[in-house]
Amino acid sequence: MGAAAVAVIRLRNPPVNALSLTALQALEDGLKRADADPSVKAVMICGENGKFSAGADIRGFSSPKRHGIALGPIISLIEKSEKPVVAAIEGIALGGGLEVALGCHYRIAHVKARMGLPEVTIGLLPGAQGTQRLPRLIGVPAALDIITTGRHIPATEALKLGLVDEVVEENTVEAAIRLANKVIGQPLGPRRLSLKPVPKLPNMEAFLREALVKVKKQAHGCLAPELCFQAVKAATEQTFADGVRKEQELFNILLTSGQAQALQYAFFAERAVQKWTTPSGASWKSASPQPIHKAAVIGLGTMGRGIVTSLVKANIPVVALEQNLEYLNMGRKAVMLLLEREAMKMEQGAQTLRFHNPARLQFTVDFDVLQDVDLVIEAVFENMALKKEIFQKISRICKPGAFLCTNTSALNIDEIASATRCPQQVIGTHFFSPAHVMRLLEIIYGLHTSATAIATAMQLAKALKKVGVVVGNCFGFVGNRMMFPYVQQAVFLLEEGSRPEAIDQVLEDFGFKIGPFRMSDLAGLDVGWRSRKGQGLTGASLPPGTPARQRHGHRYSPLPDLLCENGRFGQKTGKGWYQYEKAGGRTAKPDPWLHNFLAQYRDTHHIKTRFIDQEEILERCLFPLMNEGFDILAEGIASGPEHLDVIYINGYGWPKHRGGPMFHASTIGLPRVLAKLQKYSEAHPDVPGLRPSAFLKKLVAMGNPPLKDWMSYLSRQSNKL
Ligand code: 3H9
Fold this sequence. Notes:
Layout lengths: L5 E6 L9 H16 L5 E6 L10 H4 L9 H10 L4 E5 L2 E3 L1 H8 L2 E5 L3 E3 L13 H9 L1 H10 L3 E2 H7 L4 E3 L3 H12 L20 H16 L4 H14 L2 H16 L3 H14 L22 E4 L3 H12 L4 E4 L3 H21 L5 H5 L5 E4 L10 E4 L5 H14 L5 E4 L6 H5 L8 E6 L8 E6 L5 H13 L3 E5 L7 H18 L3 H11 L5 H8 L1 H10 L15 E2 L2 E2 L3 H7 L26 H13 L9 H21 L6 H11 L9 H8 L1 H14 L10 H8 L8 H11 L1
Parallel strand pairs: 1-2, 2-3, 3-5, 4-6, 5-8, 9-10, 9-12, 10-11, 12-13, 13-14, 15-16
Antiparallel strand pairs: 6-7, 14-15, 17-18
Helix pairs in contact: 1-3, 3-4, 5-6, 5-10, 6-10, 9-10, 10-11, 12-26, 13-14, 19-25, 25-28
Bound molecules: (S)-3-Hydroxyhexanoyl-CoA (3H9).
InterPro entries: 3-OHacyl-CoA_DH_CS, 3-OHacyl-CoA_DH_NAD-bd, 3HC_DH_C, 6-PGluconate_DH-like_C_sf, ClpP/crotonase-like_dom_sf, Enoyl-CoA_hyd/isom_CS, Enoyl-CoA_hydra/iso, NAD(P)-bd_dom_sf
Pathway: Lipid metabolism; fatty acid beta-oxidation
Subcellular location: Peroxisome
């Protein structure tokens, strides 16, 4: 605390000044001392290290000695102070941090500061009176938006909304002290938000009704947004004190809902995967990334276009290369369109100029232009021979030390690297479509990939505002490998009597943004068909006499192949597992043709149709996906269950409030997952994906340990070998 008329209280708990029990205690002590000291005429609260505060300590919510709830009374204490209290917001003021600032009588923010109430994203609501103060300060529509989305508000927007009183470009703390000195002696009543009425709207009821519909629609089964809504609604109907009681009641429901645990697990999982390691001992600790001053993308199909857009948005100069002028011009047009759309979404429309700067985005058909780039991302279609040809070429042309990345969803990184003179520079970077939107980047190291290449790819992910997850090299890597048995089961369920719309509905009710059949129609059935033809599972290379529903002694469903033979490729042809209004249409409608086709198919193959209930649909689809995950962990393809979960949440539309497939398995309980897999496997002995993983069995035998301990059982096992 300073000796002058203005007492300074500095929140200090590195790295983000989270409001731990100790930090809260220090805040309370500081306030009481300032109050008791007659020489103190005003108080200024700021954060250490250029950050106000990231809010309550999230780890505290899962500890048995939960303390977060104590923040509310401290904020009341701030507001009740007879001496003016000014918040100096630098860096971030999030969650409980912003709630502290809302308790202050004045708020000054640095122009680069960001504010928000992101509790909803970790399954909670602002539980320190924020749902009652914010609507009083900025009105119900803006408060509802901030609280139900959790988005971060830049200081300039905060000023427009009236969330802060002033924005400064220079020293925020000094400006706050100046303001504190200025307001000494002025009446504080009008500055106490709890005493203000919530600004009225002419049509409040109708507004709230519509807002609720919107909030529910976007929640996909997540509870927190709706309860955030209820808390704000309470502010419009009740006194401040009653509203606070309602807020606490709703907060406690969320805290014990299970969804908050899942979302908080996902928050920490996303951070844990940044600390990557490989079985050979390479790790984030010892490896340093190389700077990427210039990158190149080869192939301007759907993936390449998205990747170029992503690089330009990250302000990395890019060379975009195609095999001929016709494809180049098509690619250029598409990229420009994407960039214009992105520029419109961004704050400053002027960004467009930067996108069009030819020195930063160059289109070419000349491989020699790649001589000076630091990193190349090859994004041609999935064909090993073509990829090898390209890698051989670029390893000759690019400067030594350039990183050679391949965007593949399944192909062997080592085989691609074998075509080069520098396999240590080769790495897989699996983007997800649309690549400028989807957050996941699966980063695949091969046998020879250097630790520097991995660190550089991780750094690239960060620059592109994506989550990089480092995984080993196997067919389909982590994401698609776990997806195969899921999709396979969905099709088997159709054979046995279900319908695409029934299966999609169950998985969408579970929380997936889109069910497997709608997804397949969107992605195009022809993609998998081409791959299966390549693998000799269907088409001309299938040996004569192969049974229709069996391959290599295992159950196989030819249904997707038959749909393709009928020209049903999904949305692009207007027909797939569903029918659409036209080719390229997006509204899926159940198709009587398909139902009829399925009935005939079952007759032909003497399959007795049976009713399949929701529980079986869910378990048959999800349990084999998790089962594959246990195999992946046992093989060392990923270094922990968090990796699989981060991949599924960010790349496959897995509902975040269910924490990811491995977290979900842990909440169901591994003994139950195992028992169900055993049951289904006995009923379908010809389906290897249903056979329980040895690692899953081991974990059950070891007494179903918590997820954070799973990997220790694996290392003990391998140590013994
Ligand atoms: C709340 O406030 C409830 C209230 O309403 C009151 C209820 C009564 N707690 O992300 P980073 C750690 S709920 C504990 O890598 P960045 C993080 O794990 C809270 N730890 O950096 C990491 O640790 P490590 C509402 C936290 O610069 C390190 O700090 N607030 C917390 O990319 C650095 O983090 C939120 O939801 C925390 N609150 O991003 C804000 N925050 O180094 C959550 C961070 O060991 N936080 N850590 O891996 C964020 O959104 C980002 O961390 C932030 C910084 C934007 C702050």
